[in-house]
Amino acid sequence: MPLESLKKLYPAANRSRYAIGQFNVNNLEFVQAAIEAATEAKAPIILAASTSAIKYAGIDYLMAMVRAGAAKAPVPVVLHLDHGATFEDARNCVDAGFTSVMIDGSHLPFDKNIELTARVVEYAHAHGVSVEGELGRLGGIEDEVSVDAKDAHLTDPAQAVEFARKTGVDALAVAVGTSHGAYKFKGEARLDFERISLIKKMTEMPLVLHGASGVPESLTQKIAKYGGRLPGAKGLPDDAYRKAVESGINKINIDTDLRLTFVAEVRQVLAENPQEIDPRKILGPARQAIKEIIKSKITLLGSAGRA
To answer: How many Cβ atoms sit within 10 Å of the Cβ of residue 200?
Structure first.
């Protein structure tokens, strides 16, 4: 199938209260794993590239890989820009063929965030591309996104209504207690589900949860077993996903879990087979492991069988 515009997939997710998974991709193995997982789960899927992933892989290579996978896939595949920081970031991705873009002006004053986001919406909508904006700031570190805890703040519902009205965005990323990276919580996970429900009720639009990887202990232990170090890493428990979706989240972003899975598998292969020099035998198991974790997330988010 040709790449799909995300705004065409939101109405069903919004109406039936399920979430579409966004999975960040950096190379061929990630792209293959994501599309194979979606195909087997019969689910729509969002493949996302951050600006740093685009710098690493090259926008033409990413487009070619994703288009090749989507062309053979019997399910809707979206290619989305994750955390575009400037109008130029968004414009370049629209021009290259992305079918959805996120413009992250959450670090700007409220009126400047509206101004930047509205400018991106005008350009993207003219090309049939959906736009995600962000209001409120998540803490944590991921790729080129870095926010200290003191600078993080939750999304104000009243501002969300004004932001949606003045920008025309198709979806809104909200800050409700998650954070980027592998170190999301020092204690128990605490998400403001009441805030999600209120923003949903007031805006009646698709909402997005960033910083939503689970960071399962089994993965961090496996990485440690084979020489890595991630002490104290902690993510989102399964029950929090379910409550977030029930409260009104329609898109959930997952990146760190895929990185952890990839690193864990590669470390194990190299530790157990120090003589191995074939990249296919090193990366192949990682690709399979990523596929399985994406399938499990798709089921958890309620989007399995929705394609």
So the answer is: 22
Residue 277 class from Cβ within 10 Å (0-12 exposed, 13-18 middle, 19+ buried)?
A: exposed
pLDDT band of residue 195 (cuts 50, 70, 90) is very high
Give the whole-angstrom CA distance, residue 118 versus residue 59.
Answer: 24
Paired tokens of 175: 């800050």
Query: Cβ distance 241 to 212 under 8 Å?
Result: yes
In tens, the pLDDT along 143-174 reads 454 444 443 588 999 999 999 999 999 999 99
Give the whole-angstrom CA distance, residue 143 versus residue 56.
11
Instruction: Report the alpha-carbon angle 239-104-34, nearest 5.
Output: 50
Kindly give, in sequence order, each residue whose CB lies less than 8 Å from that of residue 216, ignoring residues fewer than 6 positions away: 235, 257, 260
| Nearest-10 Cα torsion for 143, 180, 158, 80 | 50
CA distances from 251 to 44, 107, 232, 276, 294 (A): 11, 21, 27, 39, 14
In our burial notation (b when 16+ CB lie closer than 10 A, e otherwise), range 72-107 reads ebebbbbbbbbbbbeeebbbbbbeebbbbbbbbbbe
The pLDDT-based confidence of 124 (bands split at 50, 70, 90) is: very high
User: What are residue 291's DSSP bridge partners?
Assistant: none
Rounded Cα distance between 89 and 259, Å, is 24
Inter-axis angle of helices 217-225 and 256-272, nearest 10? 30
With H, G, I as helix, E, B as strand and everything else as coil, classify residue 24.
Answer: strand
Find all residues with CB under 8 Å of 9, minimum gap 6, and list them.
20, 44, 76, 78
161 CB contacts (<8 Å, ≥6 apart)?
202, 203
Q: Which residues are catalytic?
A: 82
Contact 66, 38 (CB under 8 A): no
- Dist CA 307 CA 37 (whole Å): 12
What's the average model confidence in pLDDT over 227-253? Answer: 89
pLDDT at 189: 66
